[in-house]
Write a structure and sequence with these properties.
CATH superfamily of one domain in chain A: Thiamin diphosphate (ThDP)-binding fold, Pyr/PP domains
CATH class of one domain in chain A: Alpha Beta
Helix content of chain A: 25-40%
CATH topology of the largest domain in chain B: Pyruvate-ferredoxin Oxidoreductase, domain 3
Largest interface: A-B, 63 and 74 residues
Radius of gyration of chain A: 22 Å
CATH architecture of the largest domain in chain B: 3-Layer(aba) Sandwich
CATH architecture of one domain in chain A: 3-Layer(aba) Sandwich
CATH class of the largest domain in chain B: Alpha Beta
Largest sheet of chain B: 7 strands, mixed
Number of strands of chain B: 23
Shape of chain B: globular
Mean pLDDT of chain A: 96
Number of domains of chain B: 3
Oligomer: heterodimer
Low-confidence stretches of chain A: none
Chain lengths: ~325, ~625
């Protein structure tokens, strides 16, 4: 299609009225994704957005592509079937901390370990939005909500380390208000062959407003976050004058000159897990960017390969042979 | 018979019309293999046959205990038969537990072959026998053949390098050989099978063949029996090429055939569950036929992947048993709502909950028809026999694709593991129902409907037809999200009418036997054989009762009301507490339905239904 070369961001906007709350972080993510689809030269028809249930999962309705709004937590199953049926499609899976980490935690872990070639965007706002404000599996201990009036006593999931624990081949984090960073990370995710997992810090203006302000607020963001850029030094701050370095079993702050170089391609998940754990340390910058990016066989390609191998070894199956196989006899 | 002198050829040869054998032993004794081999060989010599395995859910319950007894019953016959037989003529008991668990079913005067090598004190203790059943009168009235198979197989394999344990593992083939001798069957099919199975361990193939031949020869040399039997070829079967097929295998092949008839690639998303797992296993072995299989992390992901595959243009299929269907319920509602094809195979087992995983039941009928939130109609097709499962699987694919709907294909444990001769269809004669995808963007509406009430199927990748679907109620035609009250009612009715309209594409089932009168016996699913057998027995002299069998359980076929009105009452034998009877009472309140239920994890015996029919006929006269 000649159309595919000329699509612009607005070509990816559907005619449906967007129904998120005014000020919701989802708007910025939608805009960034539409821009990225145009920048990547996607065609509308080859692109499918799949989601589960929740605020974030309304996303497919707003994309002028193919879209499938499925059931709570199960989007990974649908996405796997779609990719196995047609590996040529660009499949994006939009989920949230409730949909992806709670009811669908099982499926998320399995799609990550299988390495189906899709992009998973996990909108993390540390609260249930669509059901109106209950604590989620990423809510910090002590968070007061309607169902935790005395504070949540659940120990939260760390989505980055959840993904790493499932041996995900691409793991990244970005922030809804950091549009440039988000677009860059999404493009890297799209380019990766295998399941790309991107946690997006997303503000819920109604039920958990400002939940990431301690690191994501524009005024302090440069000093409170560190962008993991593969192959570059672990420096941060407005002037990139601060650094991080590995020291034994941990990370410590240092000057920019002494900073370690970040390698997201090491087979071991150990360095990225250590980075992921910095989320628990108040004195340390919060890592964003690319935690891990390794090559591994892609699930649906392996499926196709095995079918090709079987056809090669046994010949293309004919229905008659299948019916008439084994011991047969004649009745006259 | 061949001209060369065979062992036992001096003994009198009696013709027998039908024989029922039951092999019973420990779970580790290989009774299922033995039974299946016997069935294959009987098929090859041209008998009609039916088989019924009966095994525990545990892979290896403690050896020698009653919990670990595994059985396999088969009937083979010179005439057309419907069931694996009510009571065995011959029982093979490999140990005391197998004997005491099965002897009550043996026909009076039947033959019981006991492996005395396993009747020591320790064996009796494990089987919780206070006295030795060989000596305490348990076997009075039967013809008892005692063989120390442990010792015989040891002698037969004395020359080999096999360890004692490996030697003992060959004794089921000794048994098989002995039974081949008794009913004059050839050894060749099993020898071929062993050589193929143990192609890389030829010494094991040879050991088993030696054991089998030893058993065969023992029949003559040791004068265990007074004579041999012969069951002639069945000559009443419709001419054609036949093979023996098990229900799950027939489902798998039927699904592939159905996909081909629709012009689609089959995709199975499944999660292992007894007794459905062999459908996944079979299809996983059909990759060269273009079959994609996905063993998901659970039942839910399995059905979701199947729906995803249908969304992308494959034929989505999921296979499971009742507990799995319970887990898939929400996704099935989505499939109803987004109106995509999907075949859901439920190989029913005893319930509720884990229930009886390896035993049979038909208690998921209501679950299939109604078991979802909201008004979520799903058509239901039910297989009658193992071979019928092929046709039913194709029919399920036809309905799913022509009506853009999920379809339930119900079978059960009895069909899944049972085998019967299958008259093989030529591909050219199979139904054809090619499904066209919509590619024309002109006037495209995702929720427009054709004459079947089906919406267009569009593959992602088709330019100009991009659209969104989901589980939220959709507006008529556009498919956009709609909370409009009138629209919801309109769409609910549209989905219902579409499914109920399937009735117009299915034939009215044929009534066999009496075309009117006191009683019609109505069945669905695997009760087919027992009902057919019972009604034929009842009608031996004159047509007293009629019988009818439903392949389409939902929607019900047209024309039933007229049929029902020709009888005073309708008897419905079911392996549940009367679910179809309940359904028919609500659909046809003007007729009298009598439920005859059995929930023992075992199929009906024909004599049970015959007795019920007699009782009803007597009460009515």
């Amino acid at each position: 299609m000649s159309e595919t070369q000329t699509l612009k961001k607005k070509d990816f906007q559907s005619d449906q009225e967007v129904r998120w709350c005014p000020g919701c972080g989802d708007y910025a993510i939608l805009s960034a994704v539409q821009g990225v689809c145009a920048d990547l030269g996607y065609s509308r028809e080859e692109t499918v957005f799949v989601s589960g249930i929740g605020c974030s999962s309304r996303f497919p309705y707003y994309m002028n592509t193919y879209g499938f709004h499925t059931i709570h937590g199960r989007a990974p199953g649908f996405a796997t079937g779609i990719k196995m049926a047609n590996p040529d499609l660009n499949v994006w899976l939009v989920t949230g901390d409730g949909d992806g980490m709670s009811i669908g935690g099982n499926h998320l872990a399995h799609i990550l370990r299988r390495n189906v070639n899709i992009n998973v965007l996990l909108f993390n706002n540390e609260v249930y939005g669509l059901t109106k404000g209950q604590y989620s599996p990423t809510s910090p201990v002590g968070q007061k909500t309607k169902t935790s009036p005395l504070g949540s006593i659940d120990r939260p999931f760390n989505p980055i380390n959840f993904a790493l624990g499932a041996n995900a081949t691409f793991v990244a984090r970005t922030i809804d208000t950091h549009v440039k960073h988000m677009s860059a990370v999404l493009k890297e995710a799209a380019a990766h062959e295998g399941t790309s997992f991107v946690e997006i810090y997303q503000n819920c203006v109604i039920f958990n407003d400002g939940c990431f302000d301690d690191v994501a607020d524009r005024k302090i963001r440069d000093d409170m976050t560190i962008d993991l850029r593969p192959g570059e030094t672990l420096t941060y701050g407005k002037e990139l004058d601060k650094g991080l370095r590995f020291n034994g079993w941990g990370l410590e702050r240092c000057s920019a000159d002494e900073a370690s170089t970040w390698d997201s391609t090491v087979e071991s998940t150990a360095p990225s897990v250590m980075m992921g754990e910095l989320a628990n340390e108040a004195e340390m910058p919060r890592p964003i960017g690319i935690f891990r990016q390794v090559n591994s066989p892609v699930f649906e390609s392996e499926t196709e390969r095995q079918i090709a191998v079987a056809k090669e070894a046994k010949g293309e199956g004919k229905l008659r042979d299948l019916i008439f196989q084994g011991n047969t006899w004649e009745v006259e | 018979m061949t001209t060369t002198k065979e062992p036992g050829s001096d003994l009198p040869l009696q013709q027998q019309e039908s024989v029922v054998i039951r092999f019973a032993g420990d779970s580790g004794d290989g009774m299922q293999i033995t039974g299946n081999q016997y069935a294959t060989t009987s098929a090859v010599v041209g008998n009609d046959l039916a088989t019924m395995p009966d095994f525990p859910a545990e892979i290896r319950a403690p050896a020698g205990t009653r919990a670990g007894v595994s059985g396999f019953q088969l009937a083979f016959s010179a005439k057309d038969i419907f069931t694996p037989g009510d009571r065995p003529d011959v029982l093979i008991a490999m140990n005391p537990a197998a004997l005491v668990e099965n002897i009550k079913d043996l026909k009076p005067d039947g033959i019981v072959v006991c492996n005395t090598g396993n009747f020591g004190d320790r064996d009796l203790e494990k089987a919780k026998c206070d006295t030795n059943p060989l000596l305490d009168g348990t076997l009075d009235g039967f013809r008892v053949i005692e063989v120390d198979m442990n010792q015989r197989v040891k002698e037969a394999l004395a020359e080999t390098d096999l360890k004692p344990k490996e030697v003992q593992r060959c004794k089921n083939f000794y048994t098989l050989g002995l039974m081949y001798w008794l009913f004059s069957r050839p050894l060749q099919p099993t020898e071929d099978w062993l050589k193929e199975k143990f192609a890389k361990k030829m010494h094991l193939a040879e050991a088993n063949i030696t054991a089998m031949r030893a058993g065969f020869n023992a029949g003559d040399i040791q004068e265990l029996f007074q004579g041999r039997y012969e069951v002639p070829k069945c000559d009443v079967l419709t001419p054609g090429t036949y093979r023996s097929v098990m229900g799950n295998e027939a489902v798998a092949i039927g699904l592939v055939a159905g996909a081909e008839a629709a012009g689609l690639e089959p995709f199975l998303g499944s999660y292992p569950i007894t007794p459905a797992s062999t459908i996944l296993e079979s299809l996983a072995g059909m990759k060269n036929y273009g079959v994609k299989t996905f063993q998901a992390e659970d039942e839910i992901a399995a059905v979701c992947a199947a729906i995803g595959a249908s969304y992308a243009g494959d034929l989505g299929i999921t296979s499971t048993s009742g507990p799995g269907v319970a887990l898939k319920g929400e996704a099935l509602g989505l499939a109803v709502s987004i109106e995509l094809p999907l075949v859901v195979v439920n190989v029913q087992r005893g319930g509720p909950s884990t229930g009886l995983p390896t035993k049979t039941e038909q208690a998921d009928l209501m679950q299939a028809i109604f078991g979802r939130n909201g008004e979520a109609p799903i058509p239901v097709v039910a297989c009658a026999t193992p071979a019928d499962a092929f046709d039913c699987a194709m029919e399920a694919v036809r309905i799913a694709t022509q009506y853009m709907t999920p379809v339930f294909l119900l079978t059960d444990g009895f069909i899944a593991n049972g085998a019967e001769p299958w008259r093989l269809p030529e591909v050219e004669g199979l139904p054809k129902f090619t499904k066209e995808f919509r590619t024309d963007a002109e006037n495209y509406q995702p929720y427009s409907r054709d004459e079947n009430g089906a919406r267009p199927w569009v593959k992602p990748g088709t330019p100009g037809l991009e659209h969104r679907v989901g589980g939220i109620e959709k507006a008529h035609l556009t498919g956009n999200i709609s909370y409009d009250p009138d629209n919801h009612e309109f769409m609910t009715n549209a989905r219902q009418e579409k499914v109920m309209g399937i009735a117009n594409s299915i034939p009215t089932p044929e009534v066999k036997g009496a075309q009117s009168g006191k009683l019609l016996v109505l069945g669905w699913g695997s009760t087919y054989g027992s009902i057919a057998d019972a009604v034929e027995r009842t009608n031996e002299d004159e047509d007293k009762v009629g019988r009818i069998h439903l392949r389409h359980v939902w929607p019900l076929p047209n024309g039933l009301d007229e049929i029902f009105s020709r009888y005073e009452s309708i008897l419905i034998p079911e392996m549940n507490l009367g679910q179809l009877a309940r359904l028919l009472r609500s659909e046809y309140p003007q007729h009298e339905f009598l439920s005859y239920s059995k929930v023992q994890g075992q199929p009906f015996r024909a004599y049970e239904i015959t007795a019920k029919i007699q009782e009803l006929l007597e009460n009515k006269s």
